[in-house]
């Protein structure tokens, strides 16, 4: 299905000016989703509005100069739960309380495993098909949560799994299935989003694991295994990247810490084609862990532009930080993006839509100066 022109285009991804994927939901879309919840419009009517707003979004991404486009996760309430609940044996449910971010609590939603995790079909395959149909001469990039998000964020009904190994095996098989199905529909640029690594980046997170009787080093290796095995059977022309995040809800975060503790695993042990990394403030630490990058074909996407606030970064300071990172990784392996999406949940971060697009154009302009 892949022609040579498409293959050559995708080989350039992640692009020198790229993005994580989610965008602020337009007010019209927010209202429509509320109307659907209140049974004022049908699912079909909501779908029509989603389609129309995604078409507008894709055009705006092209106008901003991006070479890959997403659907902005416009059909999702959450960046991860909605996708994970598309597997057999996984359900959304209401929790007693939400996760605490710095200064704000998120909504009390969660996922639970009620039966063996399987892939038979997945409703988001249709979401990708629509995106692909309107992408035109840009690359349709699809974003999904890493398998670790189910391992580390789900609750489990008793008796479903008797061992962690059995669960990981089923989860890997399910991911291999949905990845192949997306590929069959034309997906050539897939991004795994993963906040679970944030728990390894701080002493606080590692101590919390130990308090639960877990060995952080063993959990790190399991996390790497889940990713590597999930993508092990991907076709050669499917490019897979991963975004490592420290939390993004209404411009807040839930974790801090540099990549030092797990740098050997992240930069030397994951079989992805590229890594989207947060480097927008001091919470992310230094570039020194990049010294563990041991592959010339691994792209490092520096998240130096914050998606949390509207003020534009000084372009010369951004360029200086790119030059600093290039001391550890060759410049031709580096790219630039915002440090996260603009709306990991439907609420979105605390900036305007125009500020969002100014940020995207800022990324594109700086990348043009540095690499072209």
UniProtKB/TrEMBL annotation:
<keyword id="KW-0808">Transferase</keyword>
<protein>
    <submittedName>
        <fullName>5-methyltetrahydropteroyltriglutamate--homocysteine methyltransferase</fullName>
    </submittedName>
</protein>
<dbReference type="GO" id="GO:0008270">
    <property type="term" value="F:zinc ion binding"/>
</dbReference>
<keyword id="KW-0489">Methyltransferase</keyword>
<dbReference type="GO" id="GO:0032259">
    <property type="term" value="P:methylation"/>
</dbReference>
<dbReference type="InterPro" id="IPR002629">
    <property type="entry name" value="Met_Synth_C/arc"/>
</dbReference>
<feature type="domain" description="Cobalamin-independent methionine synthase MetE C-terminal/archaeal">
    <location>
        <begin position="19"/>
        <end position="347"/>
    </location>
</feature>
<dbReference type="Pfam" id="PF01717">
    <property type="entry name" value="Meth_synt_2"/>
</dbReference>
<dbReference type="GO" id="GO:0003871">
    <property type="term" value="F:5-methyltetrahydropteroyltriglutamate-homocysteine S-methyltransferase activity"/>
</dbReference>
<dbReference type="GO" id="GO:0009086">
    <property type="term" value="P:methionine biosynthetic process"/>
</dbReference>
<dbReference type="InterPro" id="IPR038071">
    <property type="entry name" value="UROD/MetE-like_sf"/>
</dbReference>
């Amino acid at each position: 299905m892949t022609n040579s022109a498409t293959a050559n285009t995708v080989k350039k991804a992640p692009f020198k000016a790229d993005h994580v994927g989610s965008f602020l939901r337009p007010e019209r879309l927010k209202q429509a989703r509320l109307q659907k919840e209140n049974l004022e419009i049908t699912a079909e009517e909501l779908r029509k509005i989603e389609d129309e707003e995604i078409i507008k979004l894709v055009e705006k991404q092209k106008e901003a100069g991006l070479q890959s486009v997403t659907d902005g996760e416009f059909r999702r309430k959450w960046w991860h739960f909605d996708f994970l609940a598309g597997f057999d044996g996984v359900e959304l449910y209401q929790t007693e309380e939400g996760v605490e971010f710095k200064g704000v609590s998120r909504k009390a939603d969660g996922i639970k495993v009620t039966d063996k995790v399987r892939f038979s079909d997945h409703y988001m395959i249709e979401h990708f098909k629509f995106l692909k149909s309107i992408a035109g001469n840009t690359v349709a990039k699809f974003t999904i949560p890493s398998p670790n998000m189910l391992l580390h964020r789900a609750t489990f009904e008793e008796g479903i799994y008797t061992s962690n190994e059995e669960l990981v095996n089923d989860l890997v098989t399910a991911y291999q299935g949905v990845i192949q199905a997306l590929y069959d529909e034309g997906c050539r640029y897939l991004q795994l989003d993963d906040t679970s690594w944030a728990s390894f980046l701080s002493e606080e997170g590692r101590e919390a694991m130990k308090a639960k009787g877990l060995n952080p080093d063993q959990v790190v290796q399991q996390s790497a295994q889940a990713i590597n095995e999930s993508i092990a059977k991907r076709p050669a022309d499917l490019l897979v990247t991963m975004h490592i995040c420290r939390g993004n809800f209404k411009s807040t975060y839930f974790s801090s810490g540099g990549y030092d503790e797990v740098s050997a695993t992240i930069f030397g042990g994951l079989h992805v084609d590229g890594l989207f990394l947060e480097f927008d403030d001091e919470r992310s630490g230094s570039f020194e862990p990049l010294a563990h990058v041991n592959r010339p074909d691994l792209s490092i996407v520096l998240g130096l532009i914050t998606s949390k606030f509207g003020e534009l970064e000084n372009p010369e300071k951004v360029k200086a930080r790119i030059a600093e990172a290039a001391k550890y990784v060759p410049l031709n392996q580096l790219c630039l993006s915002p440090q996260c999406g603009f709306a990991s949940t439907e609420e979105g971060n605390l900036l305007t839509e125009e500020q969002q697009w100014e940020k995207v154009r800022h990324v594109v302009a700086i990348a043009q100066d540095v690499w072209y």
